[in-house]
Amino acid sequence: MKHFSAAALSLALLEVAQAVRFLGRVNPATRELTWAGTGVAFSFSGSSATIGFESVTGANSVLLTVDGKSTVIANVNTSSISTPAGLANGHHTVFLRKRSEALFGSIFVGNVTTDGSFGKDPRSHRKIEFIGDSITVGYGMDGVLPCTNTAELEDNPNTYAVLAANSLKADYDIVAWSGIGLVRNTAYGSPGGPTMTSRWTKYGAQDADNSYTFPSKETPDAVVIALGTNDFSVDNNNRPILDVGNFTSATVSFIRTVQTHYPKAQFFLVTSPMLGDGYPAGEAQHTAQTKAFTDAAARLNGTKVHVVDWPTQGSDVGCDYHPNIATNAAEAPILASAIAEALGW
Length: 345
Prior knowledge:
Elements: E1 2-4, H1 9-15, E2 20-23, E3 32-33, E4 39-46, E5 49-58, E6 62-66, E7 69-73, E8 80-82, E9 90-98, E10 105-114, E11 117-118, E12 127-132, H2 134-137, H3 160-167, E13 171-176, H4 196-199, E14 222-226, H5 229-232, H6 244-261, E15 266-270, H7 285-299, E16 305-308, H8 325-343
Parallel strand pairs: 12-13, 12-14, 14-15, 15-16
Antiparallel strand pairs: 1-10, 2-4, 3-10, 4-9, 4-11, 5-8, 5-10, 6-7, 6-9
Helix pairs in contact: 3-8, 6-7
């Protein structure tokens, strides 16, 4: 049996041509799956494989995909996850990705084993990084309002982000946190914590600021920024209306910061389906966000920045009025088309 010990996993990745690869931002020092969409991928020749866990904290939902067939594991409460029983002896490709976000829990990857031999890394040459909030996470997607969001109801694999990336046959990273904003976090609940300008610099979602090392192999071709829903939120007018000029300037500043690490990437600013022009009265939030993004793109003259305008969602929604599966499915082709046109994909 081929075996990768947890302590030697980093070395094994190099020795076997990255046969077992982390997906998304996973700090190799901790092997902690935090961000939604993080996981592991590998191929093997044999009849079974197992992904072991050093530990599991909190609540975590994952999607296991073997040879294109997916299984939802709504609550990870075991020390490992194996390929389905009865798998034929042959070549297989495995992806394990988190459906739920960091604030619910983490999975620490341990041993990865197979009864056969590991194959080549199933890596795409295309890469997209998604930077967003609860919409990008997949908050409450599998629920129907009224409902309370849980790790089980989050459904990152069916978000606009993953659907768009999959349709473009692109690998992806997701850096997203519910309630987060660009200049201020949500007005609802107790958001606290850093805004995305700080959170984006972390390796794992709970790691220290500026811990991400920007590995060259993880450099994206496209960066999608889906922020603003929480910046605009006012919680029944209990905080000042967003200074749209400040938001525009912050968008410009953030893109310039990201460009220092991804100088060749193209950027896509997507408007929020949760923002409309009818509420709160007199704010025209959808129009204001669209203009802010358009103005930011204009100020970044010479930079490849594209504005993708999504329509406001309908009345069928998930938990806390978040976009449901149908809305995400409708949004994904709009974004995918914009990326394909800009990058020639």
